[in-house]
Design goal:
The protein is α+β, with helices and mostly antiparallel strands. The chain contains 16 helices and eleven strands. A hairpin with a 3-residue loop joins strand 9 and strand 10. It is found in: Endoplasmic reticulum membrane; Microsome membrane.
Length: 489
């Protein structure tokens, strides 16, 4: 009985504090729906499609609003103007990383994606420098992608034009490109460790996009319950063991005067700063950064390609136009290269439209303000989580007429030339823009064009019967399962 009374008192105090805290903040934070004690606005949010819920709320409360995920207030930015004003015009203040509870048990604030403050600045700056040293944005990285794309072509030929699920093979290319940067070697597509590593990335991306993880992030105390979050934790532990094994191999063969890959560059920096207690170049940051690079550089690109092929199956007339442009500009006797892109406006538009249409990361990762800031007429306290509704930009009907329609014309002018758009925020924007954007753009263009140069895509059903509706639209947008035939041309 005594324990019950104590629990009731604690719960009452928690509710009263929650109500007082919201009342105190009400005059500062943007408007929003009235939250309920403890659960906040979770009943007004569709965990299967948070972005759609935000769009509905923005109609009532405007482009800058406050939503409570549990007891935590989150300022939501809806539409191009609000997002640009925050992430670009006041990028430094909005450059913090907001709370993402499912990651806290894995990366624990280390690495480049989920870190903050000086750690984030140092690790990101170093990572970009190391990637440039290894050819990022240069011909050397393009050569690696082209070589890997040709390996993919050979693997697809071995399917003998039979129905196949493209998930694994499409994931091999970006995973091997990242592997060559981090480990200085690629994996054979039949390598069991490689197969397992790919499986973990695929499972984690699908799981983190599920409704359960949206609830988990709002109510982290759910960690005590059984649920799919435990699969993420289990997979991360196994991935970490794989990474540590590779790091150990590098430590044993390290030549500080001849760095071979990203791990070597990091280990050399660790050695230089080993006597500094403030150094951010530690084993924890190395492991987390490698995991970040694999996670951000593998599954996002492979999922975009998988969804892209599904859209091309649904729209064979678009595939045919891309093939005609490839045949006219490149032909069949050489590999597609990045120099070709400027002469292939329709293909370039298709790649951009795939990214716009699928809306891969609808609300991006949460940001946070690094100091108290007056934003428009509101005062947002330091540390407040900021959610950017990228869907509202990619699906802006003034910039992209009929945004619900898959139409490469969204990126073409009246003369058929490629048309850039500031609204193309598929990689987010500002200080936290995806560090691998250049690599991802290169991979998407080269891999998709190489596939269409060598194969005709044959669906197993009539194109009009193909359903492109995502199975999840949480953190990420997950395409439905499908099979197709790759017919050599």
């Amino acid at each position: 009985m005594d324990l019950f009374i104590i629990l009731v008192i604690c719960l009452s105090c928690l509710i009263l504090f929650s109500l007082w805290n919201r009342s105190y903040a009400k005059g500062k934070l943007p408007p929003g729906p009235t939250p309920l004690p403890i659960i906040g606005n979770i009943l007004q949010l569709n965990t299967k499609n948070i972005s759609k819920s935000i769009s509905m709320l923005a109609k009532d409360y405007g482009p800058v609003l406050t939503v409570y995920f549990g007891m935590k207030p989150t300022v939501v930015l809806h539409g191009y103007k609000a997002i640009k004003e925050a992430l670009i015009d006041q990028g430094e203040v909005f450059s913090g990383r907001g709370s993402f509870p499912v990651s806290e048990k894995t990366t624990q604030g280390f690495g480049v994606i989920f870190s903050n403050g000086e750690r984030w600045k140092q690790i990101r700056r170093f990572s970009l420098m190391a990637l440039r040293n290894m050819g990022m944005g240069k011909k050397t990285i393009e050569d690696r992608i082209q070589e890997e794309a040709l390996c993919l072509v050979e693997a697809l030929k071995k399917t003998n034009a039979s129905p196949c699920d493209p998930t694994f093979l499409l994931g091999c290319v970006p995973c091997n490109v990242i592997s060559s940067i981090i480990f200085q070697n690629r994996f054979d597509y039949r390598d069991q460790k490689f197969l397992t590593l790919m499986k973990y990335f695929n499972e984690n991306f699908e799981t983190v996009s599920s409704p359960w993880i949206q609830l988990y992030n709002a109510f982290p105390f759910l960690r005590v319950l059984p649920g799919s979050h435990n699969l993420i934790f289990k997979n991360f532990a196994l991935q970490k063991s794989f990474i540590l094994e590779k790091v150990k191999e590098h430590q044993e063969s390290l030549d500080i005067n001849n760095p071979r890959d990203f791990i070597d560059y990091f280990l050399i920096r660790m050695e230089k700063e080993k006597h500094s207690k403030e150094s951010e170049f530690t084993m924890d940051n190395l492991v987390a950064t490698i995991w970040d690079m694999f996670t951000a550089g593998t599954e996002t690109t492979s999922t975009t390609m998988r969804y892209g092929l599904l859209l091309l199956l649904k729209h064979p007339e678009i595939s045919a136009k891309v093939w005609e442009e490839i045949d006219h500009v490149v032909g069949k006797n050489r590999s597609v290269c990045m120099q070709d892109r400027s002469r292939m406006p329709y293909t370039d538009a298709v790649v951009h439209e795939i990214q716009r249409y699928i809306d891969l990361i609808p609300t991006s990762l949460p940001h946070a303000v690094t100091q108290d800031i007056r934003f428009r007429e509101y005062l947002i306290p330091k540390g407040t989580t900021i959610l950017t509704d990228l869907t509202s930009v990619l699906y802006d009907d003034k910039e992209f007429p009929n945004p619900e329609k898959f139409d490469p014309g969204h990126f073409l002018d009246k003369s058929g030339n490629f048309k850039k758009s500031d609204y193309f925020m598929a990689f987010s924007a500002g200080k936290r823009v995806c560090a691998g954007e250049g690599l991802a753009r290169m991979e998407l263009f080269l891999i998709l064009t190489t596939i269409l140069q060598n194969f005709t895509l044959k669906p197993l059903v009539d194109p009009k019967d193909i359903d492109t509706t995502p199975v999840h639209k949480g953190f990420g947008t997950i395409p439905p399962f499908y099979e197709l035939c790759f017919i050599p041309v």
